[in-house]
Design goal:
This protein is mainly alpha-helical. It has a domain of about 55 residues. About 40% of the residues lie in helices and about 5% in strands. The chain has a two-stranded antiparallel ribbon with strand order 1-2. A hairpin with a 5-residue loop joins strand 1 and strand 2. The longest helix is centred in the middle third of the chain and has 22 residues.
């Protein structure tokens, strides 16, 4: 004889409770065996929101971001105009792209 199939889904917390509220007494859950089991108690996985003081970036983060982006763009433009020492080379382009990439990486840290 095969065991009875379980239903998928359904209520996890006892009726009459709200999210974040612990039930006063676990209600028995009747299964197909008519064997009483205790209901699941509301989980304590709630994580309170992070305080605003921890979400703000220091003043130097946006300054560094715009400085790196600006320096990268200026180096690339000056390389193409031939205004940098020596002839235009790929090294100046790499330095400019590294500055732009540094600005983008810094932008991901800005809150």
């Amino acid at each position: 004889m095969a065991p009875p199939k379980r239903k998928a889904g359904g209520r996890v917390t006892p009726k009459g409770t709200r999210p974040g509220q612990l039930p006063t007494a676990p209600a028995p859950v009747v299964t197909s065996d008519d064997a009483p089991r205790h209901a699941n108690v509301a989980s304590s996985r709630y994580t309170p929101p992070t305080p605003k003081i921890y979400k703000e970036s220091p003043r130097w983060v946006p300054v560094l971001m715009f400085a790196l982006l600006g320096i990268g763009v200026v180096v690339i433009i000056l390389n193409y105009l031939g205004l940098l020492p020596s002839a235009p080379t790929n090294w100046y382009l790499l330095v400019g792209l590294a500055g732009i990439l540094g600005g983008i990486v810094t932008a991901t840290q800005f809150r």
